[in-house]
Amino acid sequence: MIRLKPSVLAPFFMLMMLYGCDGNVAEDKPSVDSANMVNTANVAPSSIDYTSAMQLHQMAGVEINYVAPPPDIYQPTKVPEWAKERDLKSIREHAWRIWGGITERTGQAYPAKSECVAQADLAVWDTWYSEAETFQRETKCEDGQACREFHIPRQTGGTEVLSFNKYSQEFLTWVDQNAFYDESTFIEMNEEMTKNNTPTKDRIIGAIPPDSATMLKPTFWVVKSDEPAMMPYWEGPHLDINGTLNPDRPVVSTWTSFVLFDPTGEADPNKKYPVEILGPNGIEKHMVKPKKVVNAADFYAVPLTQSDVDYIKNGNIFTIGGLAPDQLAPCDLALLVGMHVTTAEFDNWTWQTFWWSPFPEDSNQPTVKPPFTHFNVATAYYFDDAAGNPHIAFNPYLEPPIEGPIFMNPSDHGSHSNCMTCHHAAAYPTPNRSANPGEMLQGAYKATGEITGAEQWFGDRVKTRFMWGMLMEAQMQGKR
């Protein structure tokens, strides 16, 4: 947990991944309503052409124009060759182009000024569709209000971060046209395949999504809008496991490198601050000097609305550490600290994951603008390297908590995994057929190595084109 003011581990651990900055005090200390925040509803005109993409939908009572990214970020004719040749340079460049496209600002102010004086200028990805919209279920927000339905990342069970999924228009249309929001679709498909003695390798949904169908898992950490807070960040470099009290399970609460998030501009950067870090024998109290002072300008920071706070406070999130629900108030900030990004550009789909860093390794990407330059990237367009060793690609904020019985091999670890491998194991129903999201993935995951689709554990199931979220929504909601 990591609050500047003394606090003990709460039965709730709020929003996601933490991050630091560079090592020195930032000379300019803008307040929370600077940089990506705007003080009035008169947001500067966007360069986005709204005529190309768009349906209106709502977020916390605000009408949002759906915005598509530039179409040239998708390269379906080139990606297969890059993957075949394991051309990591071209693959990483492609991942950064995608990141630049989906993080372009749209000029849409959020939330309503009546909610918070400081508003965010929404990024392209943040205008996309929610899980409830994509899978046609009622929102779980309080009193029918629109809110961000923050939840613990479902692949991890308990963890220190919160997230939700977002989907592009092409993905939503694919789901809608094929009724992939309805468990009956998968039941009937599976029964038909069994009746026809369909070979295991061919037990896969036949509908192929457009190349530009895109799924996202943005992940957040929440801070008070008016109080400094110490925040841990992944030390690296890249995915090297350093700066943790538990290298075998390097979850956020074990990290030992911190930045100081200071919305006041008044905190002393040379002072040591109290932090609590999870060690092998429990919580340890330390005094730590932050590696850097950061503020809202270093993050994509979105104010929480009253409906967001109500949703969280009414028992929708339980975990440990960070801010407890009763500490939250409208206009506190959700800081984007990580995101999985998946596109359907080739048969195996592309997998890239981004995480916030105070010292980003590739900050000079021409298509990426601050604060999104504060991210590192790992990619998975292939299972193994040229020597046959597992290719490792995970998000430090999302995968390290995954271990034990959720894997087919309980000795596997999320901090030694590959996004592509894990998602290629997705099939309906999950092995235990549970409708409970807290347990339905037990025994379902594979950490590394090639998956051909002919494995025996696919025998009485239907592969869902790598989409865990889609099959989970159907299995949770049941027949319509």
Our measurement of the CA-to-CA distance between the termini, rounded to an integer number of angstroms, reads 41 Å
The overall pLDDT, averaged over residues, is 86
Tally of domains: 1
Structure classification: alpha+beta
C-alpha Rg, in Å? Answer: 21 Å
Give unreliable regions as ranges. 1-35, 38-54
Count every beta strand, where a strand is a DSSP E run of 2 or more residues. 19
Helix content: 10-25%
Beta-strand content: 15-25%
Overall geometry comes to globular
Distinct helical segment count: 8
Could you give a short account of the major beta sheet? 7 strands, antiparallel
Order of helices and strands: EEEHHEEHEEHHEEEEEEEHEEEHEEH
3D architecture notes:
The chain is of the alpha+beta class and 480 residues long. The protein has one domain. The protein has eight helices and 19 strands. It has helices at 79-85, 88-102, 131-134, 169-177, 183-195, 306-316, 419-424, 468-477, and strands spanning 37-38, 56-59, 62-65, 105-110, 119-123, 162-163, 166-167, 214-223, 229-232, 258-261, 273-279, 282-288, 293-294, 301-303, 333-343, 350-356, 375-380, 427-428, 462-463. The strands form six sheets. Strands 6, 7, 8, 14, 15, 16 and 17 form a seven-stranded antiparallel β-sheet that branches. Strands 1-5-4 form a three-stranded antiparallel β-sheet, with no helix packed on it. Strand 2 and strand 3 form a beta hairpin. The protein is globular, with a radius of gyration of 21 Å. The two termini are 41 Å apart.
